[in-house]
Protein backbone atom coordinates (compact mmCIF):
# COMPACT_ATOMS: atom_id res chain seq x y z
CA UNK A 1 0.00 0.00 0.00
CA UNK A 2 0.93 3.61 -0.54
CA UNK A 3 0.69 6.10 2.31
CA UNK A 4 -0.62 9.66 1.96
CA UNK A 5 -0.39 12.12 4.82
CA UNK A 6 -1.04 15.49 3.17
CA UNK A 7 -4.37 16.98 2.16
CA UNK A 8 -2.49 18.70 -0.68
CA UNK A 9 -1.71 15.37 -2.34
CA UNK A 10 -3.11 15.32 -5.92
CA UNK A 11 -5.06 12.12 -5.24
CA UNK A 12 -6.79 13.64 -2.22
CA UNK A 13 -7.58 16.77 -4.20
CA UNK A 14 -9.00 14.68 -7.04
CA UNK A 15 -11.32 12.71 -4.77
CA UNK A 16 -12.57 15.86 -3.07
CA UNK A 17 -13.25 17.41 -6.47
CA UNK A 18 -15.34 14.40 -7.50
CA UNK A 19 -18.05 15.53 -5.09
CA UNK A 20 -18.97 18.05 -7.80
CA UNK A 21 -20.68 17.00 -11.01
CA UNK A 22 -18.52 19.13 -13.32
CA UNK A 23 -15.39 17.32 -12.19
CA UNK A 24 -17.05 13.91 -12.43
CA UNK A 25 -17.98 14.77 -16.01
CA UNK A 26 -14.52 16.11 -16.83
CA UNK A 27 -12.65 13.12 -15.40
CA UNK A 28 -15.17 10.40 -16.22
CA UNK A 29 -14.84 9.28 -12.61
CA UNK A 30 -16.93 9.06 -9.45
CA UNK A 31 -16.48 7.44 -6.05
CA UNK A 32 -18.38 5.03 -3.86
CA UNK A 33 -18.02 4.40 -0.13
CA UNK A 34 -18.47 1.48 2.21
CA UNK A 35 -17.42 -2.15 2.42
CA UNK A 36 -20.57 -3.69 0.96
CA UNK A 37 -20.70 -1.20 -1.90
CA UNK A 38 -17.11 -1.92 -2.88
CA UNK A 39 -17.67 -5.67 -2.55
CA UNK A 40 -20.56 -5.32 -4.99
CA UNK A 41 -18.40 -3.36 -7.41
CA UNK A 42 -15.78 -6.10 -7.34
CA UNK A 43 -18.41 -8.83 -7.76
CA UNK A 44 -19.85 -7.07 -10.82
CA UNK A 45 -16.40 -6.52 -12.35
CA UNK A 46 -16.74 -2.75 -12.32
CA UNK A 47 -13.79 -0.56 -13.26
CA UNK A 48 -12.02 0.51 -10.06
CA UNK A 49 -9.44 3.23 -10.62
CA UNK A 50 -8.09 3.52 -7.08
CA UNK A 51 -9.00 2.79 -3.47
CA UNK A 52 -8.55 5.05 -0.45
CA UNK A 53 -8.61 3.53 3.05
CA UNK A 54 -8.33 4.93 6.53
CA UNK A 55 -5.53 3.63 8.71
CA UNK A 56 -8.30 2.40 11.03
CA UNK A 57 -9.98 0.19 8.41
CA UNK A 58 -8.83 -3.02 10.13
CA UNK A 59 -10.75 -2.00 13.25
CA UNK A 60 -14.03 -1.90 11.32
CA UNK A 61 -16.17 -5.03 10.98
CA UNK A 62 -15.32 -6.54 7.61
CA UNK A 63 -12.31 -4.25 7.19
CA UNK A 64 -9.67 -6.98 7.13
CA UNK A 65 -11.82 -9.04 4.77
CA UNK A 66 -12.24 -6.25 2.22
CA UNK A 67 -8.49 -5.62 2.19
CA UNK A 68 -7.92 -9.32 1.57
CA UNK A 69 -10.49 -9.29 -1.25
CA UNK A 70 -8.80 -6.32 -2.90
CA UNK A 71 -5.51 -8.19 -2.75
CA UNK A 72 -7.00 -11.40 -4.15
CA UNK A 73 -8.60 -9.50 -7.02
CA UNK A 74 -5.25 -7.82 -7.73
CA UNK A 75 -6.74 -4.35 -7.49
CA UNK A 76 -3.89 -1.88 -7.38
CA UNK A 77 -3.60 1.79 -6.53
CA UNK A 78 -4.60 1.38 -2.89
CA UNK A 79 -3.75 4.34 -0.69
CA UNK A 80 -3.83 4.54 3.11
CA UNK A 81 -4.42 7.84 4.90
CA UNK A 82 -4.69 8.95 8.54
CA UNK A 83 -8.26 8.74 9.78
CA UNK A 84 -8.38 12.51 10.26
CA UNK A 85 -7.54 13.02 6.58
CA UNK A 86 -10.07 10.40 5.50
CA UNK A 87 -12.77 12.30 7.39
CA UNK A 88 -11.95 15.36 5.29
CA UNK A 89 -12.56 13.41 2.10
CA UNK A 90 -15.60 11.28 2.96
CA UNK A 91 -19.14 12.22 1.97
CA UNK A 92 -20.87 10.10 4.64
CA UNK A 93 -21.69 10.92 8.25
CA UNK A 94 -20.50 7.61 9.70
CA UNK A 95 -17.86 6.36 7.26
CA UNK A 96 -16.41 2.85 7.40
CA UNK A 97 -13.09 4.16 6.20
CA UNK A 98 -12.93 2.92 2.63
CA UNK A 99 -13.85 4.41 -0.74
CA UNK A 100 -13.19 3.47 -4.34
CA UNK A 101 -12.81 5.79 -7.32
CA UNK A 102 -14.70 4.28 -10.26
CA UNK A 103 -14.73 4.85 -13.99
CA UNK A 104 -18.07 5.97 -15.39
CA UNK A 105 -19.84 3.86 -18.00
CA UNK A 106 -21.75 5.11 -21.02
CA UNK A 107 -24.66 2.92 -22.12
CA UNK A 108 -26.90 3.74 -25.09
CA UNK A 109 -30.58 2.82 -25.19
CA UNK A 110 -30.03 1.07 -28.51
CA UNK A 111 -27.56 -1.35 -26.93
CA UNK A 112 -30.01 -2.70 -24.34
CA UNK A 113 -33.12 -3.47 -26.38
CA UNK A 114 -34.36 -7.04 -26.02
CA UNK A 115 -37.53 -9.00 -26.84
CA UNK A 116 -39.24 -8.13 -23.55
CA UNK A 117 -38.48 -4.47 -23.03
CA UNK A 118 -39.34 -2.84 -19.71
CA UNK A 119 -37.91 0.64 -19.37
CA UNK A 120 -38.22 3.07 -16.48
CA UNK A 121 -37.93 6.63 -17.77
CA UNK A 122 -37.21 9.54 -15.42
CA UNK A 123 -38.23 13.01 -16.57
CA UNK A 124 -36.35 15.61 -14.49
CA UNK A 125 -36.22 13.76 -11.17
CA UNK A 126 -34.28 16.13 -8.90
CA UNK A 127 -34.05 14.52 -5.47
CA UNK A 128 -31.02 12.21 -5.07
CA UNK A 129 -32.87 9.92 -2.68
CA UNK A 130 -35.74 9.50 -5.12
CA UNK A 131 -33.39 8.83 -8.01
CA UNK A 132 -31.42 6.19 -6.13
CA UNK A 133 -34.53 4.51 -4.74
CA UNK A 134 -36.16 4.30 -8.18
CA UNK A 135 -33.02 2.71 -9.64
CA UNK A 136 -32.99 0.19 -6.80
CA UNK A 137 -36.69 -0.59 -7.32
CA UNK A 138 -36.27 -0.96 -11.09
CA UNK A 139 -33.40 -3.37 -10.46
CA UNK A 140 -35.49 -5.45 -8.04
CA UNK A 141 -38.36 -5.66 -10.54
CA UNK A 142 -36.13 -6.78 -13.41
CA UNK A 143 -36.35 -3.67 -15.59
CA UNK A 144 -34.37 -3.65 -18.83
CA UNK A 145 -32.84 -0.25 -18.06
CA UNK A 146 -33.44 3.14 -16.49
CA UNK A 147 -33.42 6.14 -18.82
CA UNK A 148 -32.62 9.50 -17.23
CA UNK A 149 -33.33 12.82 -18.91
CA UNK A 150 -31.00 15.79 -19.16
CA UNK A 151 -32.89 17.53 -16.36
CA UNK A 152 -32.36 14.78 -13.78
CA UNK A 153 -30.00 14.89 -10.83
CA UNK A 154 -26.65 13.31 -11.67
CA UNK A 155 -26.76 9.53 -11.31
CA UNK A 156 -23.21 9.62 -9.90
CA UNK A 157 -24.10 12.05 -7.12
CA UNK A 158 -22.86 10.38 -3.89
CA UNK A 159 -26.34 10.55 -2.33
CA UNK A 160 -27.90 8.88 -5.39
CA UNK A 161 -25.27 6.15 -5.32
CA UNK A 162 -25.87 5.39 -1.64
CA UNK A 163 -29.61 5.17 -2.22
CA UNK A 164 -29.15 2.61 -5.00
CA UNK A 165 -27.58 0.18 -2.49
CA UNK A 166 -25.43 -1.27 -5.26
CA UNK A 167 -28.17 -1.49 -7.90
CA UNK A 168 -26.23 1.06 -9.96
CA UNK A 169 -24.07 -1.92 -10.99
CA UNK A 170 -26.93 -4.30 -11.83
CA UNK A 171 -28.83 -2.67 -14.67
CA UNK A 172 -27.99 -0.20 -17.43
CA UNK A 173 -28.49 3.49 -16.75
CA UNK A 174 -28.95 5.31 -20.05
CA UNK A 175 -28.59 9.08 -20.29
CA UNK A 176 -30.85 10.89 -22.76
CA UNK A 177 -29.71 14.25 -24.11
CA UNK A 178 -33.06 14.67 -25.89
CA UNK A 179 -35.85 12.81 -24.08
CA UNK A 180 -38.48 13.34 -26.77
CA UNK A 181 -36.22 11.78 -29.40
CA UNK A 182 -35.45 8.87 -27.10
CA UNK A 183 -39.13 8.28 -26.37
CA UNK A 184 -39.98 8.44 -30.06
CA UNK A 185 -37.34 5.80 -30.75
CA UNK A 186 -38.98 3.58 -28.12
CA UNK A 187 -42.37 4.06 -29.77
CA UNK A 188 -40.90 3.22 -33.15
CA UNK A 189 -39.88 -0.14 -31.71
CA UNK A 190 -43.39 -0.86 -30.52
CA UNK A 191 -42.77 0.01 -26.88
CA UNK A 192 -45.85 1.48 -25.20
CA UNK A 193 -45.19 4.71 -23.33
CA UNK A 194 -47.14 4.79 -20.08
CA UNK A 195 -46.82 7.96 -18.02
CA UNK A 196 -47.98 8.79 -14.53
CA UNK A 197 -50.12 11.92 -14.82
CA UNK A 198 -52.79 13.70 -12.78
CA UNK A 199 -55.06 13.92 -15.82
CA UNK A 200 -54.77 10.21 -16.51
CA UNK A 201 -58.06 8.67 -17.61
CA UNK A 202 -57.26 5.22 -16.18
CA UNK A 203 -56.00 3.94 -12.87
CA UNK A 204 -52.51 2.46 -13.10
CA UNK A 205 -53.79 -1.05 -12.28
CA UNK A 206 -56.35 -1.04 -15.13
CA UNK A 207 -53.80 -1.47 -17.91
CA UNK A 208 -52.18 -4.58 -19.34
CA UNK A 209 -48.40 -4.26 -18.96
CA UNK A 210 -47.44 -7.67 -20.34
CA UNK A 211 -45.95 -6.34 -23.56
CA UNK A 212 -43.05 -4.01 -24.25
CA UNK A 213 -43.54 -0.99 -22.01
CA UNK A 214 -41.83 2.13 -20.71
CA UNK A 215 -43.01 3.63 -17.43
CA UNK A 216 -42.45 7.40 -17.26
CA UNK A 217 -42.18 9.23 -13.94
CA UNK A 218 -41.91 13.01 -13.75
CA UNK A 219 -40.44 15.76 -11.64
CA UNK A 220 -41.32 15.85 -7.94
CA UNK A 221 -43.02 19.24 -8.15
CA UNK A 222 -44.28 19.49 -11.72
CA UNK A 223 -44.69 15.92 -12.96
CA UNK A 224 -43.87 15.06 -16.56
CA UNK A 225 -43.56 17.84 -19.11
CA UNK A 226 -46.47 18.56 -21.43
CA UNK A 227 -44.49 17.46 -24.48
CA UNK A 228 -43.75 14.09 -22.86
CA UNK A 229 -47.40 13.72 -21.87
CA UNK A 230 -48.50 14.47 -25.45
CA UNK A 231 -46.15 11.81 -26.80
CA UNK A 232 -47.21 9.13 -24.32
CA UNK A 233 -49.57 6.35 -25.37
CA UNK A 234 -51.25 6.09 -21.97
CA UNK A 235 -51.64 8.55 -19.11
CA UNK A 236 -52.44 6.79 -15.87
CA UNK A 237 -53.25 8.04 -12.40
CA UNK A 238 -52.75 6.61 -8.95
CA UNK A 239 -56.08 6.81 -7.09
CA UNK A 240 -56.02 9.01 -4.01
CA UNK A 241 -58.76 8.33 -1.47
CA UNK A 242 -57.27 10.38 1.36
CA UNK A 243 -56.51 14.08 1.64
CA UNK A 244 -52.98 13.98 0.25
CA UNK A 245 -52.75 15.42 -3.24
CA UNK A 246 -49.76 13.43 -4.40
CA UNK A 247 -47.25 10.72 -3.58
CA UNK A 248 -43.49 10.84 -3.27
CA UNK A 249 -41.97 10.30 -6.73
CA UNK A 250 -40.13 7.14 -5.74
CA UNK A 251 -43.29 5.69 -4.14
CA UNK A 252 -45.33 6.45 -7.26
CA UNK A 253 -42.61 4.91 -9.42
CA UNK A 254 -42.53 1.84 -7.20
CA UNK A 255 -46.27 1.25 -7.59
CA UNK A 256 -46.10 1.43 -11.38
CA UNK A 257 -42.92 -0.62 -11.63
CA UNK A 258 -44.31 -3.42 -9.53
CA UNK A 259 -47.62 -3.39 -11.39
CA UNK A 260 -45.62 -4.21 -14.52
CA UNK A 261 -43.91 -7.04 -12.66
CA UNK A 262 -47.23 -8.34 -11.31
CA UNK A 263 -48.74 -8.47 -14.81
CA UNK A 264 -45.70 -10.24 -16.20
CA UNK A 265 -45.66 -12.79 -13.40
CA UNK A 266 -49.31 -13.61 -14.09
CA UNK A 267 -48.39 -14.17 -17.72
Automatic annotation (TrEMBL):
Keyword Glycoprotein listed: no
InterPro entries, alphabetized: Alpha/beta_knot_MTases (IPR029028), MRM3-like_sub_bind (IPR053888), Ribosomal_eL30-like_sf (IPR029064), rRNA_Methyltransferase (IPR051259), rRNA_MeTrfase_TrmH (IPR004441), SpoU_MeTrfase (IPR001537), SpoU_subst-bd (IPR013123), tRNA_m1G_MTases_N (IPR029026)
Keyword Phosphoprotein on entry: no
GO cellular component: a single term: cytoplasm
Positions in coiled-coil regions: none
One annotated GO biological process: methylation
Gene3D superfamilies reported for this sequence: 3.30.1330.30, 3.40.1280.10
Domain of life according to the entry: Bacteria
Record domain RNA 2-O ribose methyltransferase substrate binding: where: 31-108
Keywords of the record: Methyltransferase, Transferase
A Pfam family it matches: MRM3-like_sub_bind
GO terms for MF: RNA binding; RNA methyltransferase activity
PANTHER family assigned to the protein according to its UniProt record, in alphabetical order: RRNA METHYLTRANSFERASE 3, RRNA METHYLTRANSFERASE 3, MITOCHONDRIAL
Family listed: Belongs to the class IV-like SAM-binding methyltransferase superfamily. RNA methyltransferase TrmH family.
NCBIfam families associated with the record: rRNA_methyl_3
Stated name of the protein: rRNA methylase, putative, group 3
